[in-house]
Amino acid sequence: MAKTPRSQPLQADAQPLRSRARKPRDPSQPKLPLDPMPARIEPCLALLKPRPPVGPDWTYEVKWDGYRIALHLNNGNVRILTRGGHDWTHRFPGIEDAAKRLGVGTAILDGEAVVLDDEGRPDFGRLQNSLGGRGGKLPAGNAIMFAFDLLYFDGHDIRNMELSSRRFFLESLLRNEEGAIRLSEEVEGDGREIFSAACEHGLEGIIAKNKESTYRSGRLGDWVKVKCVQSDSFIVVGYELSTVARSGIGSILLAARKGNDWIYVGNVGTGFNESSAEYLRKTLDRITRKTPPVRYEGRRRNLVWVQPTLIAEIEYRAWTHDGKLRHASYKGLREVQDSASVYETE
């Protein structure tokens, strides 16, 4: 997709305007017009829609396929929090180092941690491998952050500013950044054409955002996501033994949430490589159970049922008439700390 010109950032002598790191403020001066820095902010979430909204009120970005993170910078101290509020600073050392060089005293950036493939596209599987798999302890030194919002800047909470104003400051802050923290570029134009181009480039989809919206936590419709290929999180309820497949797993059995219950939505037998299949088998064999956690009326044999605790990210094309996944492919296991939402069916 062709990049559109950015809005002109704050400038002083043709250089981006950046604040210097400040010493801690004197608490005995309560009249200073500063806002307390939030310890954590619940993220604004995108509402899934089948088609992108169009019109002058909307702007568009790439939908990044990784882990949602919030970067907190407070006078040289960096915290990188997952969507669920877990501290993963030690797992993204490259992003941490880049944050210390941003040239601002205090800030909270909202974005996505990703690992890019050889063609510059985000690859969720590579990100998982770099972290050591689900539950792994490895630092992802090759991960980068694509920042798409700025919530707190130089002592001021700016969530009540409209998106276009927040982006103005974000672009100024990240104008020359090409390392481990990068700006998630906006694309102006017809949302339908932008979505089509994203799909042609093999991307997961796009995010549409209302330019005049403030930053509101939750899934309220200010942000809309449209996917080229459906990708959602499902609970793993078992697997099918195989004498020919990698590590003995022919497929894994999946369920979605329906109220307070689980409902079987089919199986997936593609997307594994040798290492991921071996890891899955070892992990699943630790949580086996004798009875199925879902109502199962299929004809598959040699099934091993497991406790419904593991969450898998699954890519699929459509649903069958009886509520099963079509053309599904395994992408990886979600971390508990990522607080991924399991797909809910009506």
Automatic annotation (TrEMBL):
Q: Which InterPro entries match?
A: ATP-dep_DNA_ligase, DNA_ligase_ATP-dep_C, DNA_ligase_ATP-dep_cent, LigD_ligase_dom, NA-bd_OB-fold
Q: Where is the ATP-dependent DNA ligase family profile domain?
A: 145-227
Q: Which SUPFAM superfamilies does this UniProt record tie to the protein? A: DNA ligase/mRNA capping enzyme, catalytic domain, Nucleic acid-binding proteins
Q: What class of enzyme is it?
A: ligase
In the record, biological process GO terms are: DNA recombination; DNA repair
Alphabetically list the UniProt keywords: Ligase
Region Disordered: which residues?
1-37
- Provide the catalytic activity annotation: ATP + (deoxyribonucleotide)n-3'-hydroxyl + 5'-phospho-(deoxyribonucleotide)m = (deoxyribonucleotide)n+m + AMP + diphosphate
- Check the record and name the PANTHER family matching this protein: DNA LIGASE 1, DNA LIGASE 1/3 FAMILY MEMBER
Q: Which family does it belong to?
A: Belongs to the ATP-dependent DNA ligase family.
In Swiss-Prot or TrEMBL terms, this protein is called DNA ligase (ATP)
Taxonomic lineage of the native organism: Bacteria, Pseudomonadati, Pseudomonadota, Alphaproteobacteria, Hyphomicrobiales
